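Hey, I was hoping to borrow your eyes for a little while. I've dropped the whole record in just underneath, so have a look:

——
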Amino acid sequence: MLTDEEARAHARADIRDHEREADKLDAMLTFLSNRLKEDAPVGAAGLDRTRALREVEAREKRLDRLAEALEEVEGFADFDLVADLLRFEVLPYVDHPDYRQEWAA
């Protein structure tokens, strides 16, 4: 059984870990926002332009909602869910020079 001081130390360490993770998530959101700006004019290969633009718009809406969710997180489980979803969003860009290996899902 942990003493009160040990429990507080563990809680502080958990908070620091989640703060570092939050910084990574902010970086992922910025990275994805920049990729969407690049993708919008180009469109996806093999897709008609209208559909490609709709897909970019849908991704923008998902990212906006994930950013909102990150601000509204109430517990570690919620935070972890948002983190996982953002990691899935960056997967298509693993070969991009700005992609960070620490974001791997």
